[in-house]
Request: fold
Amino acid sequence: MLNELAKWFGVAVVDLISFTAIALVVITLVVTFALSVKPKRIKPTSIKQYNAELFKRRMELEELSYPMLNDVKIGGGKAGLVRIDNVLRLPASILLIMSAPPDVAGQVRCSQNAGQWKYVKPDHTVGAFINPVLQLHPLITAIRSRFPLVRVRVLCVFPRQADFGGRTVKTACLPDDMVKMIREMAAEDGAQNQAMDAAWDSLSVALKQGSAEAESNSNSAKGRRAS
Reply:
């Protein structure tokens, strides 16, 4: 049989045996390597690191000297509480800044038109969360209906481990790019908008009151579930 195979391949029997042995060794090495290599678990961002990043971000925003509200909450009913880390008044627009989940640890797939944004977790499974623009849509609609000349922007800040794959997303960034993106937004706004001047005072009061009510509703809902 070996003679027939050797003739079919056009090689000597000794060469055929040598080639077969080498192929078996290579296959064994490849299989052994594939089985021994496991995906490296990425260390997730700790709560302490996450809070420190939020504090650092707030300090950077304060240095920009734009009027700002911190830790604004909306919702609070059955839909749950939605937290907005910062609300900035830019020259002619309102910027709503949110945080991506702290367990983002790899590639991110996000699009302005996608309903959900997906990302890789530390254990290499896939996580997802609602597109921040859609999540904040009720608030954005309410602001626009009352102040139609005021533009509303959204920016979601991801942990440093996030990988956008070289793509640029207008509504998302890494911490180190946040200030740069905000300055670009302000430059795009141009001169101070009179409509913005008139809107900010009443809008900031409404957001503070709404945030307090949302947190109260959320606490009440938790109490009912616990009882």
